[in-house]
Design brief:
Chain lengths: 326, 326
């Protein structure tokens, strides 16, 4: 896959800068996404999954800073692109859907205009053409009566409809890569199911690769072929999605899967006490030495405190970063 | 209804209507029927899961049970006494029903120590003897897995999971019989949720509590509940034992809710529904779910709203086609 990867992230390091100190908010994260592939990044708040996505489209802002590594998009290094070059890429070849559509959309502009803007900026269309294409784009994301809806302002739409507008904007220029950061967290489950289906259908139809980011392991496994699990700024495990549930390799992933009250579990196996992961998620400024999961890990030994584990390739595919992986 | 003696709470035909102005310029006066004729009961030692999408009225119902929202119609009977009626002794009610809030960050007073947070309700209820107050606080903190010496600290010194433990301690310090849990784990990190779920289930046994739990996470609801009530647009559409609800749901809405949860293994069958919650100001005629229902027939569109009918012992469904859909 590495030969023809659409996106290749190589030892990415992102720092949180506090005064003269730099904390490794994301450290040595590597993964690649093939053309048309759906890859998931899963982890808890503060694990670095969202800032990884922001780094990919050049939207990191202080106090976060690029700390090292390479981001290759279609074989071209994009981590140090000047702003003007990045703007050509962003929204065009790489685009993003944000978690909260109400804050990501401009409240003072009709949604049709916000979609049309993409065609004007990236495709050289006239506003007149672009507005017509915006209606098509809205129809494409299954918004009823799109010719009337283009004139609506974001506050006139429901949460699900707003997220559809976000998707229409993100997919307007037929990007090669779509970044979806918790695209359904703010939505009800039935609306979530529809939005996920929409992302799945449209990306498949356009051949768009998707980087899906979520804290919901079940959602990621359902949507993605491969999954990267992040903990405290590190990619601790990367596997085929269903393997992560069936045979987790890293103690964190294993602990997380065992701690989830999965729908259907009680009906098939009865109610047993959920396995707990002790301790708390560490703050970026206080990531532990050695393996960053060691204070909470049941398999911990001396080496976990002394040495940061390297990535190990797993015999059945995938990688894990643990001294004592399963 | 069986086992009336073990019944601890009974909600009879409860309705909460919110008038929405209008009328001034000759327009029709409009009313939101947030809760529209709900009958519920809670048995001693039971956990009743309340599910439904945002806007279905589950939070308003919970507020009425707590006496924080005056009902337009109906009664909330606690041990045979109507606690929602005007002029009821609020202190007496507080000794019976308490609430654990969703967000442990905004629901604790940041300027009060844990001791103060736990001490105030005791003093308000006439427990002023220092030794007794100290003893109760110490005991309560141990119950929720905190150390007594942590009582001198402020909320910001605790992690999210620990804060939720403080929120639980505050709810339980007056030894209530019923606790309303409003999304008790959804604001917590995924790896922390199991700790709080286990704690809540333990406390239910040791302190002989009964729970009404609101949650949109059906995995959590299945794990914790004894019975489940599903709400849609202010009404209960299905209620039954957890096993019946999760293994043999009968109402198309319940089925859709379960089918909407992303299955990590991609195996869960089920019909997805489209559309969003209709405007509660103008609820659909007949069955309120009919515009989104995959099983809709002409008869479903005609008033009146179908009644809640018993299809098995303790399993009721509000659907005209319940028998056919078995």
């Amino acid at each position: 896959m590495s030969g023809e990867a659409l996106l290749k992230v190589d030892n990415l390091r992102l720092d949180l800068v506090v005064g003269s100190r730099r904390f490794g908010a994301v450290k040595d994260v590597s993964f690649s996404i093939g053309r048309g592939e759906t890859f998931g990044l899963v982890g808890e708040s503060g694990c670095g999954k969202s800032i990884t996505a922001l780094a990919l489209i050049g939207l990191l802002r202080a106090p976060l800073a690029f700390g090292g590594g390479r981001i290759l998009f279609k074989g071209r290094e994009i981590q140090n692109l000047p702003g003007s070059e990045m703007r050509k890429l962003r929204g065009n070849a790489i685009s993003m859907i944000f978690q909260e559509p109400m804050t990501a959309l401009n409240p003072l502009s009709p949604v049709g205009r916000q979609i049309a803007e993409m065609f004007v900026l990236h495709k050289g269309a006239t506003w007149h053409e672009a507005e017509r294409k915006a209606v098509e784009a809205l129809a494409n994301v299954r918004v009823p009566a799109p010719d009337r809806r283009v004139k609506d302002y974001p506050h006139q739409l429901s949460g699900g409809m707003r997220q559809r507008v976000m998707i229409a904007i993100a997919l307007a220029c037929r990007p090669d890569l779509l970044l979806a950061d918790e695209p359904t967290t703010a939505l009800d489950v039935t609306v979530q199911a529809e939005i996920l289906e929409l992302i799945r259908d449209l990306s498949a139809a356009q051949g768009t690769a998707v980087l899906m980011i979520s804290h919901d392991l079940g959602l990621i496994a359902n949507m993605c072929a491969r999954v990267g699990v992040m903990y405290a700024g590190r990619l601790v495990e990367e596997r085929a999605a269903q393997e992560v549930f069936r045979a987790p390799s890293h103690p964190y992933t294993g602990g997380l899967v065992a701690s989830l009250p999965l729908l259907g579990a009680r009906a098939s196996h009865g109610r047993s006490r959920l396995k707990e992961i002790s301790g708390v998620v560490p703050a970026v400024t206080a990531f532990p030495e050695g393996c960053r999961f060691n204070p909470r890990c049941q398999a911990r030994t001396e080496i976990c405190i002394a040495e940061d584990p390297e990535e190990t390739a797993l015999p059945r595919g995938g990688r894990v970063r643990c001294h004592h992986h399963a | 209804m069986p086992e009336t003696d073990a019944m601890i709470l009974k909600v009879e035909d409860l309705a909460v209507h919110f008038p929405l102005g209008g009328g001034l310029l000759g327009g029709k006066r409009r009313t939101v029927h947030a809760v529209d004729g709900v009958d519920l009961h809670l048995k001693k030692g039971e956990c009743l899961g309340l599910v439904g999408e945002s806007g279905c009225g589950k939070s308003t119902l919970a507020l009425s049970i707590l006496g924080l929202q005056a009902p337009t119609r109906g009664r909330v009977l606690l041990d045979g006494v109507d606690i929602a009626a005007p002029g009821v002794d609020r202190k007496a009610r507080a000794r019976i029903v308490q609430m654990v809030f969703q967000d442990p960050y905004s629901s604790l007073n940041p300027r009060q120590t844990v001791r103060r947070t736990l001490e105030d309700p005791l003093r308000l209820h006439g427990i002023t003897d220092k030794a007794e107050v100290d003893g109760r606080i110490e005991e309560m903190l141990r119950h929720v897995g905190l150390r007594p010496e942590q009582a001198a600290r402020y909320p910001h010194e605790f992690s999210g999971g620990q804060r939720q433990r403080i929120g639980i301690a505050r709810a339980l310090i007056l030894k209530p019989k019923i606790v309303v849990l409003d999304e008790p784990v959804s604001a917590l990190d995924v790896s922390i949720r199991a700790q709080i779920i286990n704690l809540l289930l333990e406390l239910k046994e040791t302190m002989e509590l009964s729970y009404i739990m609101i949650s949109h996470d059906l995995g959590v609801v299945e794990h914790m509940s004894d019975r489940v009530a599903v709400m849609y647009l202010g009404r209960i559409v299905e209620t039954g034992g957890w096993h019946a609800i999760f293994t043999a749901p009968r109402h198309p809405y319940t089925r859709a809710l379960i089918a909407a949860i992303p299955d990590p293994f991609g195996e869960r069958p089920g019909v997805k529904i489209s559309g969003e919650l209709p405007n509660p100001l103008e609820p659909p005629s007949g069955c309120r779910f009919h515009p989104r229902c995959p099983e809709v027939r002409d008869i479903c569109r005609k008033p009146p709203t179908p009644p809640l009918g018993e299809i098995a012992r303790e399993h009721e469904v509000r659907c005209l086609r319940a028998a056919e859909l078995a």
